[in-house]
Amino acid sequence: MSDLFRVHQGYIQPAKAKSELWRVVVTLIVFAGLYIAFTVGIMGFGMVFATAEELSAITAGPNFNTPYLMVIIMTSFLGMTGGLVLATLIVHRRGLKSLLGVRANFFKGFAMAALCVWALFGVSVSFSAMPDNVVENLPYDQWLRWLPLALVFLLIQVSAEEFVFRGYIQQQLAAKFSSPWVWMVIPSLIFGSLHYNPAELGSNAWLAVVQTIFIALLMADLTMRTGNLGAAIGLHFANNVIGVLYTSLGESLSGFSRYVLPLSPEQSAELRPLLMTEVASTGVILVIYFFVVTRWLR
């Protein structure tokens, strides 16, 4: 038995005892109900203290374009984690620890994945100019004050999404099906489709979906090879630090961001080259990654 096979089997072992597909369907239905209920409650409570401008942004967008609105939407991801843990406990009799994978190298994987993303971003920035229409969002001192809390909330958000997609769904499908086309590709396609945003990206919305699918495939493979969610959470976290805390595309999740690249469906033609370049770059990184891991890391 190869080390890779042994690591992956160890990761999916907790899902094998109760791997029936009906359990997956029931778990996801219960999870969705709990998550929606929690989100509605948080949004309702949060809106009581929102300003008139923030209420207008929510109803018109919805745009979470202030730090306070970002706190509200990011808090909802506690409901995502809690809803999944409760649903998994009820249907499968297993908890959050079983979704995380093996402890070995969890934090090392997180750190290495995050550093690789930031290093690649630094290289790309050094060879490209910031688009002319990027505008300052939060003044530097205000952005800096919010940064520690924003990092915590961002970690909550990306961890919740990884628990669902690379944790629960990937584990359960891998416990039932041996083909990576099922347990690796299907969750990635679902994850990517949830990032379809024609309200801001117009006809370019599919490009964001393709790029997200590429990133999801990378995170799925990292999870399989490491036997835990550490590297996937680290990659996801580093990517979102760039896209949510540094330069946000559009106003929908711009409340913590230092800069914003304003987007609208009317700008589809002029934004397409930029977005296509990002998709192509992500695709190249994905190809290089799979070449390296299949040739050098056997």
Q: In a few lines, what is going on in this structure?
A:
This protein has one domain (3-295).
Characterization of this structure:
Helices cover 75% and strands 3% of the residues. With 298 residues, the protein is mainly α. The chain has one domain (3-295). Strands 1-3-2 form a three-stranded mixed β-sheet. The chain starts with a helix and ends with a helix.
Radius of gyration: 19 Å
State the helix count: 13
* Beginning-to-end CA distance, first to last residue: 13 Å
- What structural class is derived from the secondary structure elements? mainly alpha
Strand share of the residues? under 5%
Q: Structurally, how many domains make up the residues?
A: 1
Structure summary, number of beta strands: 3
The helix content is: over 70%
In the predicted model, the low-confidence regions spanning at least 5 consecutive residues are none
**What kind of assembly state do the chains in view correspond to?**
single chain
Write out the strand line-up for the largest beta sheet, numbering strands in chain order: 1-3-2
Largest sheet: 3 strands, mixed
User: Taking all residues together, what is the mean pLDDT?
Assistant: 91
Fold blueprint:
Elements: H1 3-16, H2 21-47, H3 52-60, H4 67-92, H5 96-100, H6 106-126, E1 135-136, H7 140-176, H8 180-183, H9 185-193, H10 198-201, H11 205-226, H12 230-246, E2 247-249, E3 259-261, H13 268-295
Parallel strand pairs: 2-3
Antiparallel strand pairs: 1-3
Helix pairs in contact: 1-7, 1-11, 2-4, 4-7, 6-12, 7-12, 9-11, 11-12, 11-13
